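Quick one: structure for this chain?
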Amino acid sequence: MLFQLPGRRRQHKRPSEIIGVDLSSTGVKVVRVKKTKEGVTCLGAQILSAAALAGEEAREGRFPVPKDLLSNYAAIAVTGEEAVVRILSLQVPADGSAPDVTRVREQVGLGEEYRLGSILTTPAKGKGEGKVLVAGLPEQQAAATVQMFSVGAPAPFSLELSGLAALDAFLVGPGAAQAQGAVAVIESGARITFMALFHRGVLSLVRKFDFGAEALIARVQHQLGVDRDTALGAMSDSSFDLSQALREVMDPFLRQLSISKDFVERREDCRVTTVYLSGGSSLLRHFGREIATATGLEAQTWNPFEGLRLEAGAYPAELDGQQTRFTAAIGAAWGVLAP
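Got it. Here's what it folds into:
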């Protein structure tokens, strides 16, 4: 689901090559992908330091992408800590086009200070009401993000929220094999977590939480009296029992996850079977364990690159094991390349 980019002439033909860029506080994830008759190929991937965006080149509006990752266009994903996400029941046009933006603003309660994006998730039935996924990003943040790509290549082609971009990657990945079941998807980064539930491949519920890996790491640092790196090591070591400390931080989120799961199961008359995890938090061993314990479901991470062909040397060997951190960047690219 994409936000409008004022000032860019609408292109009827989407590019066949693009870089997906996920801007986050812990690093900028970049993937370069190309669509051909044989499928979609990953030509390169890298994580740039957040400090790279503070250099002179970035201040001038030229995104500092390495030459081997450079392409004409960028599909941009942002965390959107102040963003708003809702699923609404609205009167929608019979042809399946987007609902009137004024009506959407009224329903979601957001003024012109927010840039809106919306997509129809369930076609109109009965009286013409359909389910519409709506996201609002503060206009100031949206404009500042686009400004980072204002000079030269890559030019901004699309802009969306990282948590929603990750859902695009899921739907062309493991979600494609879950078209008849009910599953949960959790994309959790440093400070923001998105939770979504799908039934028969259709989005039933989505929630955004002000919670992420940094809160968990800080709690372990406090309990053990150690620095950040040592806390990260302890969270990856199964010999440390950190359940109580982490549950104290995760409890509000875990309660909402359980409530949302029960709600969707009752409303859709289904049974959620699996929780799919992505984002940086999913690399923390205890994160998935607490979710599985709280929900009674299997919790598993997945590799967003599995739906892509990988050109030789495209994925850096030093980042092996961190593929899940690229989920939003890959999802942003899929959002442009997918038909």
